[in-house]
Amino acid sequence: MLSEEEKEELKAELVQLEDEITTLRQVLSAKERHLVEIKQKLGMNLMNELKQNFSKSWHDMQTTTAYKKTHETLSHAGQKATTAFSNVGTAISKKFGDMRRK
Predict the structure, then answer these.
(1) Distance linking the first and last C-alpha atoms of the chain
(2) Could you report the per-residue pLDDT of 23-72, keeping only the tens digit for each?
(3) What is the DSSP letter of 43?
(4) Are residues 50 and 10 in the same domain?
(5) Contact 61, 67 (CB under 8 A)
(6) What is the number of other CB atoms lying within 10 angstroms of the CB of residue 32?
(7) 11, 23: one domain
(8) I need a surface site. Which of 33, 88, 92, 100 has the fewest CB within 10 A?
(9) Among 40, 59, 34, 29, which Cα is nearest to 49's?
(10) Between 4 and 94, where is the model more confident?
(11) Does residue 30 sit in the same domain as residue 48?
């Protein structure tokens, strides 16, 4: 149980913290407005930022080990599939050629 003195100290601290939070919110809001003004002056907009963020994220993803391994595996599988389809096509062509000769 808290004494009356401790309760009063906590209430005073609570008021002080609330005031500080309000001040910080006001400062943050002012800085955000200033940021928007600077971006507008530089010609930066949301679409440009999204493009830049996407490009950076795509680049970062491509440099991961998991992406590289997956890319190599799929590339190798694609090469094998291409070879297999080519062989099937060659076999079918040969079969048609044999059928024409008969």
Answers:
(1) 105
(2) 999 999 999 999 989 988 988 877 788 888 889 898 898 889 988 889 89
(3) T
(4) yes
(5) yes
(6) 10
(7) yes
(8) 100
(9) 40
(10) 4
(11) yes
Q: With contact defined as beta carbons under 8 Å apart, do 18 and 10 qualify?
A: no
Residue type, 100: R
Q: pTM for this structure?
A: 0.43
* Tokens found for residue 74: 């799929």
Residues 88 and 72 in one domain: yes
Q: Would you state the structure tokens that stand for residue 7, as one six-digit string?
A: 């309760």
Distance CA 31, CA 67 (A): 38
> Is there a single domain that holds both residue 32 and residue 50?
yes
Mean pLDDT score, 15-30: 98
Boundaries of domain holding 35: 1-63
**Token pair 């391994």 is at which residue?**
69
Counted domains in the chain: 2
- Is the same domain home to 58 and 73? no
